[in-house]
C-alpha cells in the first residue's frame, strides 16, 4: 500500500498550507448550519409536551457535550499517533485540541445545570454522567496544565500524550453511564442503535446544530494548528516564505 | 418561553460566548505566532548583517 499521503501529514509546511486552504471550507458551512439550526430550534420546533420551551436548551447542550467527547477522542488519537510514530505535527494537533475541548466541556456542564434546575429541581447531582463529564473537564485542564509546566517541548508532548491516552477510559464511561448505573440523566435520544426518540421537526435542527458544531471545531482546530505549527517551526526556512 | 426564559437565554448566551471565544482566541494565537516568526526573521537578518 502506498503510504505517501500519510507521510505528507508529517510535513509541517504541507500541513500549514493544507490547513489554510481548508479552513473556509469548514467555517462557512459551520456558520450557515448553526444559524439555520438556531432558527429551527428556537422558532420552528414545537414545544415539548412535558418540558415546554425548556427543552430548547438541548440545541446548545447536546452539541457542546458531543463536541467535548469528540474533541477528546481526536486529541487522544493525535497524541497516540505522535507518541507511536514520533510525528510532531500530531502532537501539534493534540495541543491545539485541548483549549477547544475544555471550553465546550465547561459549556456542556453549565448548560446542563441550566436545564437541570427547572427539570430536576437541582443545579447539580453527583450523578455518574455528570461526574464523568466533570472528570473530562479535569482531564482537559490537566493536559493543558501539564504542557505548560514542562519547558522542553519534546518532553511536554510525550508526557501530555500519555495523560491524553490514559484519559480515553473516561469516554465509554460518559457514553454508557446512563445505561450502566441508575442515572437521573436521560438516556440517548439521537445517538443510539434504535430510531431517534424525537420527532423530525425537533430532530432536524438538532442534527444541523451537531454537524455545525463539528465543522466549527474543524475550522477552529485548523487555525489553532497553523499557530502551533508556526510556533514550533519559527526558525525553519519555509516559515520565512509564509509570513513575509 | 413558558417561564423558562431565565434558563434558556443564559444557556444560549454562554454557548455563543464560547463559540466567539474560540474564534477570537484561535485568530489571536495565529496572529501572535506570525508576529513572533516575523520578529525571528528580522533578528536573524540583523545578526547576519
Q: Percent range for helical residues of chain B? A: over 70%
What's the main sheet of chain A like? none
How many helices of chain B? 1
Largest sheet: number of strands, sense, barrel closure of chain B: none
As a whole number of angstroms, the C-alpha radius of gyration of chain A is 20 Å
Characteristics of this structure?
heterodimer, A: 244 residues, mainly alpha, 9 helices, 0% strand, B: 49 residues, 90% helix, rod-shaped
Report on the architecture of this protein.
The complex is a heterodimer of chains A (about 240) and B (about 50). Chain A has about 240 residues and is mainly α. Chain A has one domain. Helices cover about 75% and strands about 0% of the residues of chain A. Chain A has nine helices and no strands. In chain A, helix 3 packs across helix 6 (about 155-165) and helix 4 (about 90-120) runs antiparallel to helix 8. The longest helix of chain A has about 35 residues, at about 10-45. The two termini of chain A are about 40 Å apart. Chain B has one domain. Chain B has one helix spanning about 5-49. Chain B is rod-shaped and about 70 Å long. The mean pLDDT of chain B is about 90. The interface of A and B includes residues 34, 60 and 106 of A.
Would you summarize the structure shown here?
The complex is a heterodimer of chains A (244) and B (49). Chain A has 244 residues and is mainly alpha-helical.
Summarize the topology.
The complex is a heterodimer of chains A (244) and B (49).
Chain A lengths: L3 H5 L3 H33 L13 H28 L2 H33 L7 H22 L3 H14 L3 H11 L19 H33 L4 H7 L1
Helix pairs in contact in A: 2-8, 3-4, 3-6, 3-8, 4-5, 4-8, 5-6, 5-7
Chain B lengths: L4 H44 L1
Amino acid at each position: 500500500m502506498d503510504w505517501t499521503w500519510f507521510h505528507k501529514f508529517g510535513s509541517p509546511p504541507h500541513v500549514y498550507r493544507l490547513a489554510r486552504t481548508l479552513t473556509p471550507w469548514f467555517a462557512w458551512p459551520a456558520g450557515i448550519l448553526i444559524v439555520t439550526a438556531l432558527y429551527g430550534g428556537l422558532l420552528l420546533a414545537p414545544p415539548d409536551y412535558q418540558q415546554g420551551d425548556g427543552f430548547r436548551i438541548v440545541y446548545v447542550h447536546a452539541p457542546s457535550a458531543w463536541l467535548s467527547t469528540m474533541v477528546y477522542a481526536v486529541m487522544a488519537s493525535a497524541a497516540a499517533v505522535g507518541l507511536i510514530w514520533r510525528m510532531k505535527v500530531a502532537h501539534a494537533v493534540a495541543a491545539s485540541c485541548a483549549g477547544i475541548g475544555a471550553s465546550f466541556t465547561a459549556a456542556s456542564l453549565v448548560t446542563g445545570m441550566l436545564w437541570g434546575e427547572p427539570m430536576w429541581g437541582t443545579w447539580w447531582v453527583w450523578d455518574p454522567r455528570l461526574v464523568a463529564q466533570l472528570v473530562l473537564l479535569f482531564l482537559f485542564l490537566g493536559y493543558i496544565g501539564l504542557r505548560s509546566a514542562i519547558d522542553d517541548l519534546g518532553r511536554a508532548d510525550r508526557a501530555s500524550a500519555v495523560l491524553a491516552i490514559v484519559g480515553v477510559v473516561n469516554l465509554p464511561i460518559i457514553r454508557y453511564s446512563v445505561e450502566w448505573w441508575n442515572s437521573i440523566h436521560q438516556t440517548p435520544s439521537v445517538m443510539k442503535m434504535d430510531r431517534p426518540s424525537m420527532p423530525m421537526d425537533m430532530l432536524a435542527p438538532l442534527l444541523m446544530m451537531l454537524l455545525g458544531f463539528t465543522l466549527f471545531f474543524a475550522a477552529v482546530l485548523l487555525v489553532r494548528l497553523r499557530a502551533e505549527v508556526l510556533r514550533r517551526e519559527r526558525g525553519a526556512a519555509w516559515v520565512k516564505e509564509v509570513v513575509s | 418561553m413558558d417561564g423558562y426564559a431565565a434558563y434558556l437565554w443564559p444557556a444560549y448566551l454562554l454557548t455563543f460566548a464560547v463559540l466567539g471565544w474560540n474564534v477570537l482566541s484561535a485568530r489571536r494565537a495565529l496572529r501572535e505566532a506570525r508576529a513572533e516568526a516575523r520578529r525571528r526573521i528580522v533578528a536573524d537578518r540583523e545578526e547576519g548583517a
